[in-house]
Amino acid sequence: MFPHLIVLILLVGIGYFIYQLFILEVCILVDITALALDMDGTVLDDKNIISERLVTILNKLHDKGIRIFIATGRTKKEVDDVLPEGVPIDGFVTANGMGCFTDKAPVYQHTLPPELVKDVLELARERKLYYEIHPNDGSRLALRDDKTVFENELNAPKPNTLKDNEYFSRSNAVRKKIQWVDTIDFENIVKVYFFSMKEETINEWIDQLCKMKEERDFSYTSSSLHNVEIKIGHVSKATGIQKLLEINGLSSKNLLAVGDSENDIPMFQLAAYSAAMKNAETYIQEKTKEVTAYTNNEDGLAEYLLEKFQALL
Question: What is the pTM of this model?
């Protein structure tokens, strides 16, 4: 009799604990009035397409008063290139915090010091490293003399660690997106992006950037094992999202953040609730409260939002 009583007490205790966790999650989600969504690997599939189903869900959430913010490593032009009309966006954080925009106007737009851009470009060219120079306005740039270097890089064997969406984006950039020029104006540059098919090459380049940081005020971030980009110090997706929250009279207690990459970690830390995509690396998933059941190629974000906001939808 006594052992049965102990088992009964344990079962009741476990049931109560699970109930409290459920109530806590429901309460958190009731307070969620803003979404911060990464683009590549989250909103977009590996072909850089957002599903019609996800667009419909975002519109329904927006109609219910949920603010929707995009937080991406892309520049504003790169966002506009892939995001179709009909997606309800209340604000954008671009280039990993370098730019911040409401749906109506710019809030701020940082640029890199021209001498820094000039110096990193020279070092990258010495190493025959793939790079993209992204100005405040207009297409991304690269020197015409380096086009063969880029093409050779992409013709190398594709490693298993390189995600399809990144390989597709780089191939598309070389064929269509990059403006090949004879000289580059280093003024008004928002970001400089570096890429390699070889993970060790990017790691060696990051080591070089670390040495440069000892004498220069800038920072860098990666969205995969095969890239890194530079930005000014002390900005991130989180700093931009915080600004958008303030403009909309909200706080981080009202925020749900979803992403899949290292550059999403600051906004995970900012948000009251966070989720990593199933396609994220394990160490990224460990930084969030939960992981989506499906990948970006399986409409994972749509499925996740449908589940979490079922009462609203």
Answer: 0.85
